[in-house]
Amino acid sequence: xxxxxILGISGSLLFSVSTLLLAAEEESAALPALPFSEEIxxxxxxxxxTLQTGYGPAESQLGADRESFYSLRYxxxxxxxxxxxxWSQWEVFTRGWLAYDSSTNxxxxxxxxxDNIEGFNAELREFYVRRNLLDDDPRFSIAAGRQRYADxxxxxxxxxxxxxxxxxxxxxxxGFFAFGQKFYNYNSKVNELDARDEKIYNALGDYAWxxxxxxxxxxxxxxxxxxxxxxxxxxxxxxxxxxGVFATGELLSTPxxxxxxxxxxxxxxxxxxxxxxxxxxxxxxxxxxxxxxGRRFYDAPWQPRVVLRSGLTxxxxxxADGFFLNRIQSDRLINEQTYxxxxxxxxxxxxxxxxxxxxxxxxxxxxxxxxxxxxVSDLRLRNSNxxxxxxxxxxxxxxxxxxxxxxxxxxxxxxxPLAYAGRQFDMNTLVSAGYFFAGPATGDLDDDYQLTLSIVxxx
Length: 459
What we know:
By secondary structure, the protein is mainly β. Helices cover 6% and strands 54% of the residues.
């Protein structure tokens, strides 16, 4: 009887609790919903100010007279989304600049690889329309207009191009395919294209697969068809393919290396050359391999990263053969999170042909928002009778393969973000120093150096 009484009391309690909970739910359901507002973003305006000053060889050419130079640039960006930013179906993007450059010296710190135009100029750098959510699928999009193409290495593409681009992105794979041609510079001072850039069709594409956490591998290709009228201003026309593979990633559990990046590119095509004797056709075959292996010591002071970088091209039998960079490629090493530089130095430009280079660097973080980096590189020719892969105003010595050594120092500082008028303000500063020790292959070329200070403000 006691058990039945206890069960009865327990059942009454359970019924009472259930009744109270049901009443509470009905009361809460009857209450009016609290107002909740979320900002709907349909457009953005971004501002970027760049100040750069330095001292080094004129026109970034080794051996030229050194000069002081400076550059001022304002880059406004406007982006419109429809119906809103989070799940936009349509996107309109425009980016321009207003600039003044005291000389044609340029720095890889800039976001675009091109020679500066001396004096004041304005340019519409990018303008395109993008259609997202094709067939209501967030993986697919298509864009048309003048668009920027860039990756960590400029070995494949590092320029803007009027084009149609199709993108595919999901959690394990990504890729794009684009087709386009340059028509104008859209610059107030130099609008017409250089003769070497006219009437060139370009097809670009890549496909990447994430085969393991933080590790990607893929293939890339580009096709170029030059159908411009040959002249002494445009003495060569190249038509052909570039194709290759790449791999990049992080290996946090491996004791020897913590990150890596490998690019291999092959070029196959035909080059038409014009000279006083007429037009000759040359079959082009060549390749280039770039590698980077890093090891970060997270437990050591300043968390240093030791990095080994190298580059190797084929050994061309003559100047008309072998791997080379076309007009939309560059030797830049691009890091969107910090600063961009070049493969071996901030001021020594490399034409990736007839070249072997290797070097070691140490990258440190003195504070949470700063970095102090140093690297030393050695440059050599594959064929001592081939052309120098650097910009020089001195004739080379074909009895040696040693181009020289490069020492490069960079200090980068990021200010703590500030809030002003409801928006974020950032300022980044880069101090660079590069020294080139000329080797025997450069002939009578003297050692050279360049110092630069760059400040970028974003709002």
